[in-house]
Amino acid sequence: MLRALHIENYALINSLDLSLDKGFTAITGETGAGKSILVGALSLILGARADSSVLYNSTKKCIVEGEFNLNNLNLEGFFKTNDIDFQNNTILRREITENGSRAFVNDTPVTLSILKELAEQLVDIHSQHHHLLLNKADFRLQTIDDFALLHESVSEYQQIYYQYKKVEKALQESIEKGAREALEKDFLTFQSNELHEAKLFAGEQEDLELQIAFLKNAEEIKMQLYKSLQIISEQDCNCIQQLNEAKNACHAIACFDEKINDLDARINSILVDLKDIAFELSAKEESVEVNPKELEYCENRLDTLFRLQQKHYVKNVEGLLQKLQEIDEKLIQFENLEAQIEKLQKEYEILAEKIVFLSKNLSEKRKESAHLFEKELERKLSLLGMPDAVFKVEIIPQNSFTDTGSDSVLFFFSSNKGMPVALIEKTASGGELSRIMLAIKSIISAASFMPTVIFDEIDTGVSGAMASKVAAVMHDVSLQRQLLTITHLPQIAARANIHYIVYKDVENEKAVTKIKKIDTQERIMELAKMMTGNKIGEAALRAAEELLG
Prior knowledge:
By secondary structure, the chain is an alpha/beta fold. The protein is 57% helix and 19% strand.
């Protein structure tokens, strides 16, 4: 319930404070006095957008504060979720300057969306043009959902729906990505196979280059090895033979001198090494072959390595091995993408089944409530002077899902007995639409437990004979909800428990809007003025007294 409203520096309001209570509050005043300015200011703390044009004094900031009693509204979870301190008497505040605006809940800065989300659970404002919402499909569906108290069911559906859409988007993007990369995958698979089949290993290129150089010079190498072997061990007077003679000579006199003995040992050691060298030279010389086929193989292999390096823009085998690793890692990503697509597909199918189930459940509940809503609305319309009105709701299944399910809602209406119903936007007059909207609001406010309902001149166009009936419906609403009504009809203002008048004054040679609560005698005068204008006679005063009862 809205307990108090403070408005500062807004439009024609310099500073204004309004204390409110439960029940029925009427706000009246002359045209142009600024009655609807109050609603405009209140809309700011309900999340409406605004700019600096609303400033009464452009050098100061505009402040709008509303104090709400939140007892029994079960909003503690909302405050906890948004990290806001919960208080039974909560203050919503909006500050507007030339540079922008800020929003607060209990002095905690919040975004406009959070402020709006909270406010939508506290106040419902209905203005004279809101009957145009009857032409909008989402409003018609929301009306049935509000009447059927489907908020939790819709919320449960929406949680799954948003997951469903998220997975659907991810799946579609993955499939499209897979399709775009299919050719690249085939190409990379070919490259990977080619490099794997090449059986590359680090250092191979250097080894091949050395081996090719050796094979190309095999004949020269063999000849020089043979020559060395001849000199060391095979020709006449070869090194081993001569060294052996030197060893024998030293050995013969070694006993006479210790140093000669050491030289003898050293010559013997050299002789052993030289014989070993001769053996290895012989083995190596025999192993060296002039092998054109081996040379051709090595040259072809090196050409293959050069071709692969050129193809992949690298300079050596190590670069090819790095490239192969990168290609294989990319192919693993493709495999992961395929696995991801498969996983998303399964998740999508599960969510799709849930969506179908929850949507069907919503449809059934809507259809069950639609008939009750029709009867209740026809009863309200009868109270509003349309006893022969027929109202029908048609729930039409759609082929696709939205965040509200798979239903579209149409309203059909007939105001005259025996006449067939037609689409409400085609058959109802402006006055009938206003009364239909009032009836809907009165039903929904009772069903949805909205703490505060505000009617902003929705009685525009209502005749005198109908005014009392509209007032009676508003009074019924006020028995269950706090009701604020801005009205120009005395019959409605008279049914209120509390009556405020809005008027213009002049301060510092500037027009300002003010408001005051009036007592019984002042109400009689105000009601008489509303009936007859500024010329108030005894008859008007008596009529006003009768209206107040």
